[in-house]
Amino acid sequence: MADTSLGRELLAVFQHENITTLFQPIVNLKKRSIYAFECLTRGPENTPLYSPINLFGLADDLGCLLQMDVLARNVAIRNFVSASSFHQNQAKLFINVTVSSLLDKNHRSGKTLQLLAQSQLDLSQVVIEITELQPIEDCDIFLKALNHYRSMGFKVAIDDLGSGYNGLKLWSDVKPDYVKIDKHFISNIDSQADKYRFMETIVILAKGLGTKIIAEGVETEQELYILEKLGVDLVQGFLLKRPSALPALSLSFKWPDRRQVTVTDNETVKVVNKHYKWVNPNETVFEVAEYLLNNPDVVFVPVVDKGIPTGMVWRHALMNVLATQYGRNLHSRKSIKKFMDEPLVYNIKTPLVDVSNDITEMGAQEKSAFIITENGKYVGCGSFMDLLKVMTDLKVRSAKYANPLSGLPGNVPIQNKIQQYLDSNMPFSVIYVDVDHFKAYNDCYSFEQGDQVIAAIANVLESVMAGKEGFVGHIGGDDFVIVTEEDHETVANSVLSDFRFASQGFYTEEDRERGGIQSFSRDGEPQFFPMMTLSVGVLLVYPDIFVHTQKLSSVATRAKKGAKSAGGNQFFVIDSRDYTDA
């Protein structure tokens, strides 16, 4: 090892443990919070061995890859545990292990377990991430080594699916708990249909196999939005947080609140809060059972100790216990705390949507209510049924105010904004934007990818209007509107050119080459459809011509029809001063 300068440098790395660990967060997309940290090993700074490719590559060449793996593992665990807050909150730790190390005959069984015992880190927090530096030549030995880790309780992840030697075969053989998708497939997924289709297929496959997907290399909001939409479980990348020497307490990225209606008490659990009779944990099973028998409509009883909720007793569970042959004789005098369940507890200011997401993620179960607190004290309970009713009402109302697909304001805000412009008695433009051949695209590619197009158009319109005076709204389907006092030609041309560029990525290479897709007409006949274009209708509005929005909208619709008649990717203008019957 000491025969070359790099060999001597590597020897010094071992002697002085001269490596550092960087931690990069892995983020849970549903909860939008840190789920785990991946350990990234770096060699001595300002040297060729700082790069992990060089460091582990040289160790492999010199026959000491196993020793480097163990050293990196040891340092990573030690550094992670020293950040006590993450040790305590059960964030998971992804530790890279190379295939060669697993297959090395000198690999000592239980080495990682020994390290964890010394550090007092719970092994349920550790995920063994398999990194491929070379092909797996003996799958049987590899799987035996891997299953040894699993038998001890470790979870397993496959790194960089799509870039290694074995790919789907490895996934099939290993049946991992996590699969990391190489950043090649994530980059520009918002504008490349092939990558979108690949990811869509992988997500479906993963859900069927019970595997969690981790998307690597997320660098833009648009990529993140598409991954959320596809139902990807976990993500990591520079957009969210760059690797750092200490596990991050927070993310660099904050999800924009695209809702147009401010969250009020009517959108928190306060709206479903009702006061329910509670019992002390020392009350007997007999006393609680008598209360339930005398109140047949009561299905649960909160357990509260000095104002703090500690449990929930469910009618069906308690009655099942008492209904057994000796149930009453055995249990009647016991304290109810022995039969209470761990409750779901939410602060009274928790948004309804967060509670709804949690309940959806838990799936079907017998629980039907949750406890509500204020400043940590019991104030009441909310039932799942009441939550469902309120959420349904909110969705109906939200549809009027904001389009859930694009996040843009819907019909009510659009009409209000146009009326504000009319009341100001100043000239402005209403620019209607409609997508040509959108239905054919939906039919051919899928509604999921059609939704991707809608989201991309919203991004184009918002980008064009960034820094300008105006308003962007989503009427519904593939119809959008811009209300602005800016120069209409500049805005319309920017929209057309930006969409023309973005739309290329919606199609496969084959469809791009032939300039469109083969689909079916409304009559069910085979028909060729050109690639999607935009029809942009512009209505120039001047003072004292329109009094209300209804007539204005009718004329603006004619402008949109004029653009469609012109053939797409063009804008058509109607000047309200020339429109005498307005």
UniProtKB/TrEMBL annotation:
Gene3D superfamilies: 3.30.70.270, CBS-domain, EAL domain. CDD domains: EAL, GGDEF. SMART domains: EAL, GGDEF. Pfam families: CBS, EAL, GGDEF. One of its GO terms (molecular function) is cyclic-guanylate-specific phosphodiesterase activity. Residues 426-576 form the GGDEF domain. Residues 3-257 form the EAL domain. InterPro entries: CBS_dom, CBS_dom_sf, Cyclic-di-GMP_PDE-like, EAL_dom, EAL_sf, GGDEF_dom, Nucleotide_cyclase, Rev_trsase/Diguanyl_cyclase. PROSITE patterns: EAL (PS50883), GGDEF (PS50887). It comes from the Bacteria. This is Diguanylate cyclase.
